[in-house]
Amino acid sequence: FKERRELILSSEELKQKRNRINETLKTADKSEIEKRREEMKELSNKVKESDKKLSDLEEKLTELSLALPNF
User: Fold this and answer.
1) From CA 63, how far away is CA 2, in angstroms rounded?
2) What is this structure's pTM?
3) Fewest CB within 10 A of the end CB: N or C in the chain?
């Protein structure tokens, strides 16, 4: 459960950072826009990886909880 919590926090932090960069794009000049777009691509990839790990972990936890007998 600790790993799940850490993955959720990490993913949320990455999403917040991506959103902040997106906000700066609205007022940035062209040279900065290209730089920020690259950052956003990297962050988006990290978010996807984190979400995938979280999904896999939640699937494993669900499988484990279904295997436990209900007393």
Assistant:
1) 17
2) 0.74
3) C
Element counts in the chain: helices (H) and strands (E): 2, 0
CA distance 57 to 52: 9
SS (H, E, C) the chain: CHHHHHHHHHHHHHHHHHHHHHHHHCCCCHHHHHHHHHHHHHHHHHHHHHHHHHHHHHHHHHHHHHHCCCC
pLDDT level of residue 33 (50, 70, 90 thresholds)? confident
11, 54 in Cβ contact below 8 A? yes
Say which amino acid occupies 39.
Answer: E
The token duo for 5 is 């919590």
